[in-house]
Amino acid sequence: MFPLVSGRRGGIGMPPKSTELQTPWIRAQLLEWLVRLSDRSWQEENWTSRGPENSGLDEALDFFDDSGVLAEPCGRLGFVLVDEEEVAAMQALDSVLDNVISAPSLSDVEIIQSRAWGEVVDAARRALVAMGEGIQ
């Protein structure tokens, strides 16, 4: 049976809503990437120490491109996302992320240390909250 869950998704005694998704493993990966995007210290420690040929930021962008969760969040309802609040959070993240990465060619270090990158970090945190995974 399912563990007891309380909170905005499902309620006590109900299975977590993500179990109803067709691709819950992609949701799990999405949550992992959002946690990474929401933690600038982690990014500086793990991404800025890499050479340009091994970009951690590129890995994140590849996941988002491959999953389509930012480009087509409405189309991911029932697969990765569970409601309109999550769709809106992905749209907001897409908007700020697109603004940052469409700037002239910068290194990962320059991007992560830019003022605009703070908006990406904040949008990732808001997305985690929308998905019921807010940072404590």
Strand-residue proportion = under 5%
What percentage of residues falls in helices of 4 or more residues?
40-55%
* End-to-end Cα distance: 28 Å
- Provide the low-confidence segments as ranges: 1-16
Radius of gyration: 16 Å
Main beta sheet: strand number and arrangement?
A: none
Number of strands: 0
Which outline best applies? globular
Q: With helices defined by DSSP (H or I, 4 residues minimum), what is the helix count? A: 6
Helix-and-strand structural type: mainly alpha
Instruction: Write the H/E string, N to C.
Output: HHHHHH
Structure commentary:
With 136 residues, the protein is mainly α. Helix content is 51%, strand content 0%. The chain contains six helices and no strands. The chain has helices at residues 24-37, 40-46, 56-67, 84-101, 108-112, 117-130. Helix 1 (24-37) packs antiparallel against helix 3, helix 1 (24-37) crosses helix 6 and helix 4 packs antiparallel against helix 6. Mean pLDDT is 83; it is low at 1-16.
Key features?
single chain, 136 residues, mainly alpha, 0% strand, globular, disordered N terminus
List the helices and strands and how they pair.
Blueprint: H1 24-37, H2 40-46, H3 56-67, H4 84-101, H5 108-112, H6 117-130
Give a brief description:
Helices cover 51% and strands 0% of the residues.
